[in-house]
Amino acid sequence: xxxxxVPHRNQDSAQGARVGAGWFRRALDSDIFYSFRRSKxxxxxxxxxxxxxxxxxxxxxxxxxxxxxxxQLQLLNSRISPLWTADGQSPFLLGTDEQGRDVFSAILYxxxxxxxxxxxxxxxxxxxxxxxGLIAGYFGGxxxxxxxxxxxxxxxxPAILIxxxxxxxxxxxxxxxxxxxxxxxxxxxxxxxxxxxxxxRTVRGSVMVEKNKDYVAAAQxxxxxxxxxxxxxxxxxxxxxxxxxxxxxxxLAIITEATLSFLGAGMPDTMPSLGTLIRIxxxxxxxxxxxxxxxxxxxxxxxxxxxxxLGDWLRDALNPKLR
Amino acid sequence: MLAFTLRRMLQAIGVMLAVGVIxxxxxxxxxxxxNQIVSIDTSAAERASIRQSLGLDDPVLVQFARYFIDxxxxxxxxxxxxxxxxxxxxxxxxxxxxELAICATLFAMVAGILMGVYSALRRDTVLAKLxxxxxxxxxxxxxxxxGILLIYLFAVTLGWLPSFGRGEVVKLGWWTTGLxxxxxxxxxxxxxxxxxxxxxxxxxxxxxxxxxEVLRTDYIRFARARGLTTxxxxxxxxxxxTLVPVITVAGLQFGSVIxxxxxTETVFQWPGMGLLFVxxxxxxxxxxxxAYLLMVSLIFVTINLVVDILxxxxxxxxxxxxxxxx
Lengths: 323, 326
What we know:
The complex is a heterodimer.
Chain A: H1 2-19, H2 22-29, H3 31-38, H4 40-57, H5 59-62, H6 103-139, H7 141-155, H8 159-174, H9 180-210, H10 214-221, H11 226-234, H12 239-262, H13 274-282, H14 291-317
Helix pairs in contact in A: 1-2, 4-6, 4-14, 6-7, 6-9, 6-12, 6-13, 6-14, 7-9, 8-9, 9-12, 10-11, 12-13, 12-14, 13-14
Chain B: H1 2-29, H2 33-37, H3 44-53, H4 60-72, H5 86-121, H6 126-140, H7 143-157, E1 170-172, E2 175-177, H8 182-215, H9 218-225, H10 230-268, H11 273-282, H12 286-314, H13 316-325
Antiparallel strand pairs in B: 1-2
C-alpha cells in the first residue's frame, strides 16, 4: 500500500518545493483532493473539524468569561437555562452550571484541553511507536522479538484499562504534587503508552518490505549510518498508513481522555476537559438541568464523529486498491 | 497438536508472569504500603516493626515469590480504603460484573446477527441504511455518553427504568443474581445495552460483510440451482457459514466487554468489579488495582488460549500447517 502511494506524494512535495507557488495549485489538482471534493460527507466533516480547532484556538476571544477564573464567576448566575428557553439570560447562550460558569465558554476551554491532550497523546504514541517499529523492522532478530512480544501482549488489553492503571500509579507516585499541568502530562503519557502498538506494527511491516529494496542497499553501500537510513530513507516511505492511523487514533485519544476524565481519573474540576464537564453535568441531570451535560456531550460526539469520518475517507483515499 | 497446545500454554504462563511482575511492582513500589496503613503520628520504631511484619525488608525476589504464591491462592493483600481482604471484595462483586457482561454479549450477538443478516439480504432498503448509520454512531459515541443518553430518556424523562444499581438480588450460595427479580431485570436492561452496543455494531458489520461474501460463492449458486428455498439457502447455508468468525469475535471480545464494563458500571453505579476498580484508581488503592489487573489478565489470557486451541480443533488446515512449522 505504502510504496504504491508514497512515491507519488514525494514527487508532489519535491516538485512543490521547486516550483514554490505552484505547490498549492498542484495540491488542488491531485487525485487525493479530487476524491476529497467528491465526497460531500468528508467535506462537511472536514469543515466541522476545522471549526472545532478554530473554536479551541480562539477560545479566549470567543468566550464571554474565563471559566478558570473564580473571580469572574458569580453564584447569582448559577443554573440559568439556555438562551432560547423561557428562563434564558444573555450573554449565556447555552446556560450556566451550578457555579455560574457559562456552559459555552466552558466548552470552548474544555475543547482546547481535549484537543491538546489528544494531539499530544497521538504525537507521543506516534513517536514511540514509529521509533520502536523502525528499530524492530530494521534490525530484526532478538530486538524485533522482544519489542513485538511486548506489543502482542499489550494489544490484548484495552487501551482504557492501561491508561487507567498508568494514571493510578502516577497518582500514587506523585501524590499531592499532582497539579493541573502535571495531570495533563500524565494523561498524555498514559494515552501515548496505550496507543503506540499500532504504529509500531505498521511501521515494522513496511520497513521489512522496504529494507530489501535496492535504494536501501545503495544507501548502506555508500556507508550511511543506520539511524540516517531509517529516518531519511525508509521512514518517508511508510508515512501513508501512519497518517491514517494517526487520524483515527486522534479520535480514540480524545475518547480515552474524555472517558478518563469522566471516570474521575483525568482532568480535575478546576481545569475541565469535555469529559470532566460531562461528569460534572451528569450530577445535575436528575434536577432537570440537562444543558450542563448535553452541550459538552454534543460537542464531544460531533468532534469524534467528524474526525472518524475524515479518518475513514483518508484510509480509502490512500488505498490504491479502492481507486 | 499436543506440541502446539503446550507451546501456547507456556506462552500464556509467560504473559501471566510478566503481568505478575507489573502487578507486584505496582504493589511494592508505587507508594509505600506502610504509609497507607499507619497514621501520621506513628513512631519510626513502630513503622519499622510494621515494615518487618509485612516482610518489606526481605530481598525483592523473596517478596516477589511471596506475592506470586499468594496471588496463585487468590490472596491479594488488604485494601487501603476498605481494610478488607481484596480477594473477598472482588469475589463479592464478580457475579454482578459477569452477569452484566454475559447479558451484554448475548444482546450484542442476537441484535448484531439479526441486523447484519437483514442489511446483507436487503441491502438497499431504508432500514438497512439506518442500521449502517446506527453502527457508525455506535462506534463513534463514547460509551458513557450513550449511557447518559439512555438514562436521560428512560429514567429521567420517561421514568420506565431505574438509573442506577442492580435492583433486588437473590442469593444462590455465594453467587448473587439479579436475573430472578423484576427490579433486577429492569435494572439490567440499560447497562447491558450500553455495554453491548459497541460489540453489536462490530458483529453487525462482520455478519453483513461475511454474508455478502458467502452469498457470492459457488456453492450458494449451486444451492439455488438445486431449487432450494431462499429461506433454506440464506439461513441453512449462508448464515451457518458466517457464524464461525462471529462466535470467535464474540468470544475474543468477551474480555474487552469485562474491561469496558468499568465505564458502564460507573455510569449506572452498577456494584461490580469495574466500579470497585475505578474507585480504587480515584483513591489510589494499589492492592485492588494490582489484583484487578491480574484477574482481568487471567480472563484475557484464558480466552485467547481457548480460542487458539479451538481454532486448531475446528479448522484442520491450521493443524497441519502448525504441525509442519514445528
